Amino acid sequence: MTDGSDTLQDIDKTDRHFLHPWQDVVSIGEDDWTVLETSSGIYVKDVEGNKLIDGPGGMWCVNVGHGRREIIDAVTKQISELSYFSPWSMAASVTTQLAERIAGIAPGDLNNVFFTTGGSTAVDSALRFVFFYNNCLGRPDKKQIIARVNGYHGSTYLSSSVSGKEREKANMDMLPNLVHFVSSPKPKDRAKGLSLEAFCDEKIAELEAKILEVGADKIGAFIAEPIMGSGGVVVPPKGYFKRCHALCKKHDILFIADEVVTSFGRLGHYFASEDVFGVVPDMITTAKGLTSGYLPMGALLISDRLMEDISQTSNEPRGFTSGFTYSGHPVSAACAMANIDIFENDNLLEHVREVAPYFADAMNSLSDLPEVTDIRVMGLMAGIECELDASTPDEDRDCAFTLKVDAICQDLGLLVRPIYNACVMSPPLTITKPEIDKMVSILRAGIVQAAKG
Ligand code: PMP
């Protein structure tokens, strides 16, 4: 309880009772938070009336932009007509239609949609499906998972266990004896003089060595984001994702593409696995852009092949005993339907493909700044790495500089997402070329000013 003496403004700013994700618990009540009040298009407005470009698009999720009337209306209508149904025993037409629509835009035979409450629970469900699948197939030992250093897959026990960000594991317990990590395919980390092709060969050789070391008969799945998002926007060398997939196929290992960030337009396609990287995974996880962050929802897409494999093992029912009270929630489903309508009506995927080269050029224009040592861009996601001390390994580097950039940029009208030593940008996909110019010029000013101390 508060003692009642705080002003509303004080409570807003210091947030005594809201334990934020990743918050330092020692400083609860002491931090000075930016408190947002309204949002529209690519902008958010704080309680002091400052209008800021939403550079990170919320948390990579506000894909169609803020304040879309179509979504507000669809959600309002749905909540008035049917606010809930029990998904384990019933269906709702809006959720059924959404599942059909997602299957229609998904790659290959990924025709089975299992709805979740967000990205972590989609990843959790994918991993549980791997266990279920191999149990049904009579291979109870084939359940180990291969994941990657600096990959991020969520904050449930299982999804965090396959996440490879060392700093996030501090003071946390992870599921033991389940996950084997291979290194991140971050080109900047390659040995001096090594070509990108040779670097890619190295990563593939490492993955195969790991498979052989653990034993393919023990490994259930490999999980990877097409582009590592929270790992700092890591764009792998050409052919990497496809070759990982081929290796998994060769060794009968399921391939899970975590597209929580890269789906729904971030790379100019509904799903990047097939259209950008030429891969039809066994499972895809999605969330964020599915509802553009207006309401929580995620989904796990499962291939027909896996369902058929299971049904061929027995004529007995094989219940996937997993699910959530809010699986396929009708209001979230109506939100997702209206969101996809916007993609179609506004030709949003085409728009992203059109502005992406401009966005990349704008980001690359920052390369003349001495602090900027690596620029990683694909579609409408970018990581601008700022090197302060070249000898500090990534894992140990804190966000001191990029937090400073964010603070300065906020004063100048732009939100930045600091991840380690990278300023990460993933704006609403509706962003225009003049807005990209504005965003990058503020980011430039922020980096220059932060470097002055
Ligand atoms: N997978 C990836 C690739 C993500 O980036 C995230 C969230 N940033 C998640 C999973 C977890 O999603 P959520 O926060 O919705 O649980």
TrEMBL record:
Entry's Gene Ontology cellular component terms: cytosol
Keyword Transferase tagged: yes
Keywords assigned: Aminotransferase, Pyridoxal phosphate, Transferase
Top-level taxon of origin: Bacteria
Cited InterPro entries: Aminotrans_3, PyrdxlP-dep_Trfase, PyrdxlP-dep_Trfase_major, PyrdxlP-dep_Trfase_small
UniProt-recorded Gene Ontology molecular function terms: pyridoxal phosphate binding; transaminase activity
Family statement: Belongs to the class-III pyridoxal-phosphate-dependent aminotransferase family.
Annotated protein name in UniProt: Aminotransferase
